[in-house]
Amino acid sequence: MNDIVTQALTAIGSGGLVGFTLGLIGGGGSILATPLLLYVVGISQPHIAIGTGALAVSVNAYANFVGHARKGHVWWRCAFVFAATGTVGALAGSTLGKAFDGQKLLFLFGLLMLVVAGLMLRPRTAIVSNVVKTDGLTCWKTAAVAIAAGAASGFFGIGGGFLIVPGLMLATGMPMINAVGSSLLAVGTFGLATAINYAASDLIDWAIAAEFISGGVIGGFGGMLLATRLSTRRNLLNRIFAVLIIGVAFYVLYKSSAAILPLW
């Protein structure tokens, strides 16, 4: 009984940390979901951690999407095209991920975390462009980027906002705030597609997912409240979080390296 209570509390706390990070700095926070589920909550199988994390990320993304939609930050046509087209990539990526050895998948996940941290540490330059009409060509460009982003999201069971936001900006020329708002529909849909695929193989722990999500909702609310006060320090927060990701990435690489060593 104590073990169940402890696991529930760690799941709520871990979800709260991910939600708080997402609310505070935005994209990139969900990449901590799988390591937390594995090494803090105690899920033993990597694929169950990925499936459970994908479901939690999906719910949190949809919740944040509603807030952005109410503020008019969503370019609906491109958001729907990106989400619908990228879902094909997410289903393909998650199917491949399920067939991949769990420890080897974690090792690649650790490498991905280092890439995400590097992107967060890189100085951001504004993408300056004229207003782009959401015509057919723009949506086809958006769809091409969506396939790649969806495949990566499905394969690793992550939200993929760090890929989707710049992809939308480059494909459509939309401002960052609109890219962030529009991306959340894709993040939620990719996560949902991945979760459904993993659920079909019984690779989701539903109880832990519910606890993780409840913590994420509470943490996300707190993160958004603090974000308004620390908006001028956003770059500093990104760098601090990137350093945290690097530390977690090396731990993931260390724990999963046994699966890779025989290949060297």
Automatic annotation (TrEMBL):
<feature type="transmembrane region" description="Helical">
    <location>
        <begin position="206"/>
        <end position="227"/>
    </location>
</feature>
<feature type="transmembrane region" description="Helical">
    <location>
        <begin position="48"/>
        <end position="68"/>
    </location>
</feature>
<feature type="transmembrane region" description="Helical">
    <location>
        <begin position="177"/>
        <end position="200"/>
    </location>
</feature>
<feature type="transmembrane region" description="Helical">
    <location>
        <begin position="143"/>
        <end position="165"/>
    </location>
</feature>
<feature type="transmembrane region" description="Helical">
    <location>
        <begin position="20"/>
        <end position="41"/>
    </location>
</feature>
<feature type="transmembrane region" description="Helical">
    <location>
        <begin position="105"/>
        <end position="123"/>
    </location>
</feature>
<feature type="transmembrane region" description="Helical">
    <location>
        <begin position="74"/>
        <end position="93"/>
    </location>
</feature>
<comment type="similarity">
    <text>Belongs to the 4-toluene sulfonate uptake permease (TSUP) (TC 2.A.102) family.</text>
</comment>
<dbReference type="Pfam" id="PF01925">
    <property type="entry name" value="TauE"/>
</dbReference>
<keyword id="KW-0812">Transmembrane</keyword>
<keyword id="KW-0472">Membrane</keyword>
<dbReference type="InterPro" id="IPR002781">
    <property type="entry name" value="TM_pro_TauE-like"/>
</dbReference>
<protein>
    <recommendedName>
        <fullName>Probable membrane transporter protein</fullName>
    </recommendedName>
</protein>
<feature type="transmembrane region" description="Helical">
    <location>
        <begin position="236"/>
        <end position="254"/>
    </location>
</feature>
<keyword id="KW-1133">Transmembrane helix</keyword>
<keyword id="KW-0614">Plasmid</keyword>
<dbReference type="InterPro" id="IPR051598">
    <property type="entry name" value="TSUP/Inactive_protease-like"/>
</dbReference>
<keyword id="KW-1003">Cell membrane</keyword>
